[in-house]
Write a structure and sequence with these properties.
Elements: E1 2-3, E2 9-10, E3 17-18, H1 19-25, H2 30-44, E4 47-48, E5 53-54, E6 66-67
Antiparallel strand pairs: 1-2, 3-6, 4-5
Length: 68
């Protein structure tokens, strides 16, 4: 993990398993998908002072969504 700019942190790995891993292993459940959708909706409803607009993940591929 390392600082990335003045207000961000970058890390290669977070705890949990990616949605891609669950999908590939056949362990993805409807409840997991619903939870991911709710979290994306919640997060995209946040306001970013830095960007003067709504926050966006920017890369919401299943490999970048973690379910723990």
């Amino acid at each position: 993990m390392h600082a990335f700019g003045a207000s961000s942190v970058c890390t290669d790995k977070l705890p949990g398993k990616s949605v891609w891993d669950h999908l590939s292993e056949g362990t993805l459940t409807p409840q997991m998908s619903e939870a991911d959708g709710r979290e994306l909706q919640r997060a995209h409803g946040l306001w970013s002072e830095e960007f003067h607009g709504p926050w966006s993940h920017g890369d919401t591929g299943t490999n970048n969504l973690i379910y723990d």
